[in-house]
Amino acid sequence: MWWARTPSSPAGEFATASGVARKNLAGFNAATGALTSFTGGVSFIPNSNPTGGTPNDPLGVYALLLIGQTLYVGGEFNDAGAQPRLHGAAFNITNSQVQAWNPSTNRVINGLAPDGSDLFIGGRFSRVNATFVDPFNSGTPRNALAKVDGAAGTANPNWVAPLTGSTDLRTLMVFGSRVYVAGTVGVSATENWPVASLSTANNNAGLFINWHPVPAGGVQSLAAAGSTVYIGSGVFIDGLPQPAIIGVDATTFPSTGTPSFAPALGRGREQLPSGQSAGVRAIATNGSDVVAGGTFTNAGGVDRRNLAAIDLNTGQPTAFNPPMKGQFSALTSVNALALTDDGLVWAGGDFITEGPNERIGLAAFDAGSGAIASFHRDPNGVGGISALVASGSTVYAGGVFTQVGGIPRRNVAAFRNVPGEQGTVLPFDVDVDGPVQALALAGDTMYLGGTFTSVNGSLAALKRDRRNLAAVDATTGIARDWDPDADNAVSALAVAGDTVFAGGAFGLVNRSTARLRLAAFDALSGTARAWAPSADAQVRSLAVYGSTVFAGGDFANVNGGVPRVGIAALDALTGASDPLSVDLIPEERSGQTAPPLARVDALFASPQTGLLTGGSFVMNTPTLRTANLAVFGLPALPGVPAADVTDPELSLTASRRRFGVGRRATPVDGTATAARKRKKKAPRGTTLRLRLSEPARVRFDLLVKSKGRKVGKKCVKPKRANRKRRRCVRLTRKGTFRRSAPAGRSKVAFSGRIRRKALKRGRYVLRATPTDVAGNIGKAHSLSIRIVR
Question: At a CB cut-off of 8 Å and minimum separation 6, what does 741 contact?
């Protein structure tokens, strides 16, 4: 269902919709456009109270907010469903009945925004919870902004904005822990701002003085995505493009700052001549084709709207032609891509597909033709999808949303396509309290990056503080102990072996370790590795290829002054800058050079495809005039054929399977030693003997055996409720360590400890899984062992 309201103009009210009587408010079916049975309406009854015979502002509905089955309405009216309501009302959309919510302000409400069980309201008022008969001299004083209860509309006594009486708000939004307001914001007796932000916390409604954007013209609208707040002034002048929309950092932005996003907008042919009007923001590969998503209206001269597939051999678009909506396609974007093994291309971002049954922000397409799949689970929220990762037929998504297909999921979700149906949203529920901009999957662990402070927030017992980086179980979403802690946004992640690489806007990790926008962490402990290259602006994308880490973003220099515009190759061990002969410059459009930097938003590297780069740029060398999407070859990985798809083979034995815990610690990482002639067995511990078909990293998992009961396909902990179920053996992971091992025979000493922690007496399974340098994962082998004392 979608809703119609009156525009902000004196002649904006309406009395009918689709020829049927309606009072300034109507509901329509989202698919067909047919008028629904909703009959709730608002009006102004002259002389019904001391506000006078005519309204103070043009009659109409200026703000709508739908939460569940409740539709909140703000505007200029004094009657809702034949009940007294001053400027604010709520309706049940099922039965059209007026609800108890009644903020009762003395002037118009222009904006509504949810904050947990409360709502923020903004407008021209100076009183909240005023009486109907004397609204200007009763109620609670609030200058144009108030936090009210979502059930009754009662003003929160512990939240009072420090705004002056000159404040006149046109719009507002809640993003993270701040409420952003726009219009005429009175910050002092002598100063008004066009836009400002305040803390949403009770007893701390302070103004953030370090966030002070000054856009051209009056602010009409606000939106947010990732770590950016977008501000719209609505100033469009014929023949004179100008930045009528700007994007600024959501936390700190001085009045003299340069916006990160400022397309010059105009009318007719002048519309979107520059800025971020074209660019590739996401890359995925499908055999010999590269799938590109972003903001564009053609690919290689062929009409393609924000999503296209390019043949790597010819450089020409393929037959893949998804039904992306053409209108406003230069203002929308595909920000994330993933391919599943059931032959689908998944796209996430800020877009709409063609009807019928439009998909908004999330869709799946046939990888060959681009035909839209039956999956239809739209995310809500203003930020949309920023990251997608696929595993088999499962897709994980990160972004800014609170629901997917009507099912509560805060900023992270997982789902599958079900042919002929709308698809399934999986139980995976991380509940992250801020935007998630990056995802990386390694085995049974999902790594998350973004702008957040906690995960698993829905249950107090599970909630964990995690600042901008976290790791969770890929099935349940429950947080792991991994906690690297970055002090600013993380926008890119890549996992290679036991190392997690991160890029973004941060300056500190592990709470006190300096890392300037690039860092590497131990995949188990979260401890920062010595790898410490730097970039002079935000890093937005990462790709690992052998011993090289490719970084893309907004930077012009790395490692303290080494020129690398938009893209850099870094040694994966030392962080040193490797040679990379790529000359990127900002793309030119309509006689202007914009965006103001050559940005690389997406990277993908493999022996089969080479290095793929996507962004907003022109590449002068090595290929002339390659715009926004480029590919160049990479050398074969040392000791590995260019198209290595062979899984490493492993055999595993142990010198003894029944042993006591030794005194020495077992390091979590290291190198297997070459096998020699057998010596006398040690009285404690054991020696693991390996045989590999090629060099590989071997992961050893220790799983303790315990009694269980079979429930469905799972072996669960015995309880009274399942005591009659069939018995089974539960395996619970107690620890992990890794070794780099050569081809052929090698050995690993295992004392019965993980680091220094001794395993308890009992029966265990030791599982070894090899991964070669090309990322191929071999078959796991297991041994049963017993710790006796």
Answer: 671, 672, 690, 692, 695, 696, 697, 698, 748, 770
Q: What's the burial of 441, exposed, middle or buried (CB within 10 Å: 0-12/13-18/19+)? A: middle
The dihedral region occupied by 686, where left means phi > 0, alpha psi between -120 and 50, and beta the remainder, is: beta
Enumerate residues 6+ apart whose C-beta is below 8 A from 640: 546, 607, 772, 773, 774
Q: Can you count the helices (H) and strands (E) in the chain?
A: 0, 69
Backbone angle region of 128, left / alpha / beta, with phi > 0 → left and psi within -120 to 50 → alpha: beta
Query: 392, exposed or middle or buried, with CB in 10 Å at 0-12, 13-18, 19+?
Result: exposed
Provide the whole-model pTM: 0.51
Nearby residues of 258 by Cβ (< 8 Å), 6 or more positions away:
596
Query: CA 101 to CA 73: how far, in whole Å?
Result: 10
Tokens of 295: 């903001």
Residues in Cβ contact with 191 at an 8 Å cutoff, skipping those fewer than 6 apart:
none
Low-confidence ranges of the chain (pLDDT < 70): 1-13, 47-54, 216-217, 233-244, 262-279, 286-289, 296-303, 312-316, 326-331, 383, 580-598, 608-609, 614-646, 667-683, 773-775, 789
CB 207 within 8 A of CB 227: no
Instruction: Return all residues near 314 (Cβ < 8 A) that are at least 6 apart.
Output: none
CA distance 728 to 707: 6
Q: Scanning the structure block, which residue is given the tokens 């007294």?
A: 84
At 608, is the secondary structure helix, strand, or coil?
A: coil
CA distance 662 to 26: 75
CA distance 402 to 385: 11
**The pairing of beta strand 781-787 with beta strand 658-659:** parallel
Asked if 321 and 309 touch (Cβ cutoff 8 Å), the reply is: no
The answer to whether residues 438 and 490 touch, using CB atoms and an 8 Å cutoff, is yes
